Structures are given as structure tokens and as C-alpha cells.
From TrEMBL:
Alphabetized InterPro entries for the sequence: DUF6674
Keyword annotations: Coiled coil
Organism: [Ruminococcus] torques
Ranges for region Disordered: 235-256
Protein name per the record: Uncharacterized protein
Coiled coil: 41-102
Domain of life: Bacteria
Keyword Coiled coil among record annotations: yes
Length: 307
């Protein structure tokens, strides 16, 4: 599978969905960690693709080297070195693809559970720590490739030097035979075709391998940071829940006292009379006025009799 043919992890829909859920649930640190881990994996893919291109270029350069007996023997050894590096590169590429698939699978499971169970399911992002073992294996493979490449670079440099010096010796021998002065090649910088065809690409590959190792170190550190951020968020959430529970308990404990205080010390309010604003009320008031008038007349009659 060609890495360039696939999507980068940071552009995968499931990764974007997971990042969105983390941000919406106030888990910004975890979202940043996940994004950076995915970015590191994408970076590894690009570096390995570049290394593959360099090795392909090396292979083509070896094939195009001038044909002669000495060079043909060297070409075989150089081709074997290139094939070793290429095999190691393919192995690393396969390991990175496995990491990529595991990240996507883990993200998918977390997203599906988070939709059902909410924020608590997002703590499962710590499961990304499961790819740490894969990163460690890749790093070990890369370190092995660096050692092998260093040896191949040293041998190739020695081979190029031998070819260069042999050519210079032969050239001076012809000059001597032709009664011409020898040339001091130590004062001239001359490179054998092997240097361009093999040595330069090997050094470029070695540089990429070192860069990949540094990249892997950063990825492993980021996984550890993610696990720590999840743990800290859990502890903080636990403390917040305890605090809220305590506040609720305090509120319930204080509630009866406030009710009792309201009952005991509540001011007495006079009863309100219901006022009637209809015809019955008017008649009732008229009857009362008539009783008052009758009472006045009775009193007046009694006073007259007394006189």
C-alpha cells in the first residue's frame, strides 16, 4: 500500500470527530495531545516516503555506473547494501501503517461509546498509550537501520577512496610512461562516481533515519503526556464531584433550619377581606343602611314617649 494514496490521520473523519468531542467536553489538553500524536504519525509517513525515493534513486544510480570489471564487482556489493536499506525501510513503513490503523480503530471505538455514555467515555483516549509498544519497536528498528547504514557508509567511502586512488595511480603511471610529470591529486578534490551514486544517497538516508528516531522520541513523550493529562482530568473531575456533593449535603442540612425560622419568626399578616363588587354586594349594603335608619327612628320614638 502506498502511503501517499491514503489520507493523513489528521484528515480522517473519525479523528476529527474525536477531537471535536474532546473540545466540546472541556478536554482541550487531551485534544491537543491526540492531534499531535496523529501529526507525528503523518510526519513519519512523509519521512519514510522520502527515504524510499532516495533509495530508489540510489538503485538507479548504481545501475547507470560505468561498466568495467572492478566497478561490476563493486556494484554487486553496493546493490546488496541498497537492498538491505530498502528492506528495512519497507519494514518500518509497514509498522507505521499498523500504528495508523490502530489509532483509527481506537478513535472509532471511543467516539461510538462517547455518543452513548458521554464525557466519561472520552477518558478512553488514554488507550492510545497502547501504541507506545509499536512506537518502541519502530524506534528499535530505526536504530538498527542507523547502525547498518553507518557501516555501509564507512565501507562505501573506503571503496570510493580505493577506486579514486587507484584511478589516480593508474593515471600517474601513464604520465610516467609518457615522460610527463605526475599530478599531486591531494591538492585536487576529486570524487569517484560511487560517491555520487551511492555514498551521497546513503548519507541522506542516514540523516532521515536520525530524524525519524527523534520524531519517534517525541511521539512516545506525547503518548505519556496524554496518559498524564487524562489522569489529572479524572482526579480534578473527582474532586469537583466531591465538592458538589458536599455543597448539596450542606444545603440539605441547612434547609430545615431556614424553614423553621420562617415559621417561627414570620410576621403576622392581617386577614384580608374579600370585597364584593357586584349587585349582591350593593343590596347587602343597602339593607345595612336601612337597618341603621330604622334604628334611629326607634330611638327617636322612645325619646318622645319619655317626654
Amino acid at each position: 500500500m502506498d502511503m501517499e494514496a491514503g489520507k493523513t490521520l489528521t484528515n480522517e473523519e473519525v479523528i476529527r470527530e474525536l477531537l471535536d468531542l474532546l473540545k466540546k467536553n472541556a478536554m482541550k489538553e487531551q485534544a491537543n495531545d491526540v492531534f499531535e500524536i496523529c501529526s507525528y504519525v503523518d510526519g513519519l509517513e512523509k519521512k519514510i516516503d522520502s527515504m524510499t525515493e532516495e533509495l530508489t534513486n540510489m538503485q538507479n544510480q548504481i545501475k547507470e555506473m560505468q561498466e568495467d570489471t572492478l566497478v561490476n564487482n563493486a556494484k554487486k556489493a553496493l546493490s546488496e547494501a541498497q537492498e538491505r536499506l530498502n528492506a528495512r525501510c519497507e519494514q518500518i513503513k509497514s509498522q507505521v501503517l499498523e500504528v495508523k490503523e490502530q489509532v483509527k480503530s481506537t478513535a472509532k471505538g471511543i467516539v461510538e461509546e462517547a455518543k452513548e455514555k458521554g464525557r466519561a467515555a472520552l477518558y478512553r483516549v488514554s488507550e492510545f498509550l497502547g501504541i507506545k509498544k509499536r512506537f518502541l519497536d519502530i524506534r528499535e528498528n530505526v536504530r538498527g537501520a542507523i547502525k547498518t547504514t553507518d557501516k555501509d557508509i564507512a565501507k562505501t567511502a573506503l571503496l570510493a577512496k580505493g577506486f579514486r586512488e587507484a584511478g589516480q595511480t593508474v593515471a600517474n603511471a601513464f604520465r610516467t610512461f609518457a615522460d610527463k610529470p605526475e599530478v599531486d591529486y591531494s591538492q585536487k578534490e576529486q570524487k569517484h562516481p560511487i560517491t555520487k551514486a551511492v555514498l551521497a544517497p546513503m548519507k541522506a538516508v542516514k540523516k532521515m533515519l536520525v530524524s525519524i528516531e527523534i520524531h519517534l522520541d517525541a511521539s512516545i513523550d506525547k503518548l505519556d503526556n496524554l496518559a498524564m493529562d487524562v489522569r489529572m482530568d479524572k482526579e480534578k473531575n473527582k474532586d469537583d464531584m466531591k465538592h458538589n456533593d458536599q455543597m448539596e449535603a450542606d444545603r440539605k442540612e441547612a434547609a430545615p433550619e431556614r424553614v423553621e425560622a420562617e415559621i417561627v419568626y414570620a410576621p403576622v399578616v392581617a386577614e384580608t377581606h374579600e370585597y364584593q363588587y357586584n349587585a349582591d354586594a350593593f343590596e347587602a349594603r343597602g339593607a345595612a343602611d336601612m337597618k341603621v335608619e330604622i334604628g334611629k327612628e326607634v330611638s327617636k320614638v322612645r325619646e318622645d314617649k319619655a317626654r
